[in-house]
Amino acid sequence: MKETVFMVEKLLLLQIHDFKSMETETQGEIYAQYYHLFYTQIFYMTREHFMTEDIIQESFLRVIKYFPKVCDSEKLKAWLKTVIKNTTLNYLKKEKRARECIENDILDHIAIIEGVEREFELKAMIEVVEKYLIELKPEYRQLIELRWKEEMSHKDIANMLGISEQKAKYTLCRARKSIKKRVVKEWPFFNSSK
Fold this sequence. Notes:
By secondary structure, the protein is an all-alpha fold. The chain contains 10 helices and no strands. It has 2 domains: 98 residues, Rna Polymerase Sigma Factor, Chain: A (Orthogonal Bundle), CATH 1.10.1740; 88 residues, Arc Repressor Mutant, subunit A (Orthogonal Bundle). Helix 9 packs across helix 10. The radius of gyration is 23 Å and the shape is elongated. The N terminus is likely disordered.
């Protein structure tokens, strides 16, 4: 409880001073207190140390950027918990989307390859897939880049291109199949249809 009160008092300095203009030592103290205060709560949701650290950094940047101008310690604690919760949920959604992007059979089979052999195969496959992307129809390439490089949703892609969401999903599926077909031709052991 003492740590929470101390932490809130330290953070209240952000109402008076800009974080960037504070002494490095004060900045470090505020961040260290923030880190220790919320690490356990975030780790409980993520179960992963590095992800927890990323979320703490991302949420801390939001805190110093959007710190409320007038706020008592009780309201501040509630606001901080909301920032932590929202940052964590957004991060987890982003992670889930990233994992869903790797839904094709190619990467499922990569897990079988071990050690150095796996790294070489992965690098070679990435080069081949990138080569195939360049050779794709422009329509397919554009959809794949918007979906996986820009991380846009099917709905956003459809709106941007002026097509239906169903058409975006269908065309994206055809683009993935086209790439998979070429990869399987070069690496027949990646064919999961057996």
